[in-house]
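assembly run, all chains below
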Amino acid sequence: MKLALPKLLLRPLSRFQESILHVLLAVMITASILTFPTDFIEAPLFDLRQSWSLKPKADDQIALITIDDETLNQTNEVHPLPLSYHQKALERLEEQHVKAVGYLINFNMVERIDPTPFQNEQGQKFVRTGIRMNAQGIPVLLANPFTINGEETPPYPLIQLPQAVSRIHHDGMIFGKDNVTRRALISLYDNHAFEMALVSHLHTHDEAPTPPGTYRASDTDAQYFLFKLHQTGGIVYDPDYETFPYARYSFVDLIEGKIPQGTLQGKIVLIGSYQREKPNDFTLINSRSKQNSIPKLLVHANILDSILNQQGITPLPASVTAVLCFLLSVTVILASLKLRPSHLIAMTAYLLAGAFAASLLLFQPLPWTGSLWLNTSRPLISLVLSFYLMIPLRLYSENRKRFALEKQNKLLKEVEEMKTNFLQLVTHDLKTPVARMQGLTESLKRALAEKLTSKEVDLFTHIFSAIEELNHFITSLLELTKLDNQGIRVQLKSKDINQILESVLLKHRFAAQAKQIDIQTNFEPLFPIKFDLDLISKVLSNLIDNAIKYSPEQTTITIQTQEQREFIEISIQDQGIGIPQEEIQNLFSRFYRVKNDTTLKVKGTGLGLYLSKYFIEAHRGELTVESTLGQGTRFVIKLPIDLQETEVAQPGLKTQIEKQRKESSPGRALG
Ligand code: ADP
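ok done. output:
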């Protein structure tokens, strides 16, 4: 019992069904890609865009005070210094008339170094300075670290000062899982995080706007945004020269009054730790290289800058990604069925590059859109996946087409073979009765010879010419069937082509004279060359016969021979009716005759030129034609001078079919 399924699969689909199938496939690819986590590809692509995109200039309002190696060396203290130093620093900042102070120091650790100042006047002094500054409209904000125990508030009495939670966010759990810092906290449990809080304190009259692209994280009650990296003089941070895009001063210089008065006036100052050898002071900002590690204090500055200047990277909605995935997938699927493989590869490569270039362009901080983050990994995967899925489908459809073509080809060959057999049979059987008709008519004419009137003699002449025509037709057909069955055997003999032409011409003199056609010959003396006398005579005879047949009376036919490097060239030019340009391509086909009034009157089979070309090509030569309608035709034969016996084999059609059959079914051939 045959299975129904393969039959169903083999049944050709209508165009509409095919289109539906392609769209469905694209939808399936898109849907599966959208559910598949692609962060591990998207994260490095995000970083690539980040490093290739233009970076906004760092805001010179922001200044950094670093508790650095110099500070620790010169004060001879441990990090993050006892409270007295911070008290001093705050007083200095007040003197400098700064715009705001963001204190990124864990005061619990300060207390651990020496708890006494917190219990005496020192702690109170620090708080008083802070409160005084806040009252003057200079926000002093303490950053509370966020640990596994939650927000860590500063020890008494510093708890009285304004504070906000602060955390450098590493993409450790989701998105890339590569511990790279790309996003920043805007708020946690509806309380502003450190940088946002600092900006809010600066907005005394109105509410500070959140930066573009702020989104609410689904897993925690928090708001984030993707901050921008800033640069000055093309530098985000240079570890070798310790160059920062923001003005940086050492903490020790601040407390020792070495920063000239007025330098920090109107600046938003961030105070934090920056020790070269302390890994905890640094964070990765790019997964592409471990070199892309920058001080955490600098990350805070970039976050603050992004919020101040309303810069952020806005993720485009998932629907945009879905539409793009679908469009790319459908394009590749449709193209894969129509384009050549090399073109398909080129197109896919262009689309890949185009999709990435588009995402890179969107990432630029364009004034009217800001930086947009188009998910690139999913569209790219959809392209590649569609491409690889379509390869086997394409192979399958090609195979089906080839199978159908092979079947058709086989059928055509069989029909051709049947036609040849039929022709052979008919012509062979016709030959004998026609010969008998000829013989019998001649006997009849002879028997009646004396009694015939001149009119009756004319009638006999017509009968003979009709029989002659029929004979000619049968001979041509026999020639053709012989060719098809056995091919031809070219028997090479050395002869002078001019001599052969002379003898062929002799046979046509009478017909030419009857139409008063002048035959001019211009033969260059030639060396004998090798060719098949019988075949070439037939070709020449046919071409001269045609020239006479298709020329009006009192015209000239010019026949020329000449030697041309590896060829002998024979040209036969007439001043006859000519051949329309559009017919020339079919002229050498079997049974082809140009349809016009003259050819209708002229008897012919449409086989002469086909056979002539076949014979000439069997000699590795060429037969070409040039013609101008109403002016004349020129046939040119080129025969190679140095033809070898081994070059002239021409298998017949039947032999070719049999050979192919044997090759395709060796079992049967052996049997
Ligand atoms: P046919 O037996 O019809 O002459 P051929 O194969 O020799 O068959 O020629 C095919 C057709 O090419 C002719 O029917 C005729 O229309 C055209 N043809 C051939 N030779 C000439 C020529 N010298 N001038 C004009 N037409 C020609």
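Residues 542, 546-547, 550, 574, 576-577, 579, 587, 592-594, 599, 604-610, 633 surround adenosine-5'-diphosphate (CB under 6 Å).

The CA atoms of residues 8 and 423 lie 42 Å apart.

not gonna interpret more than that til we talk
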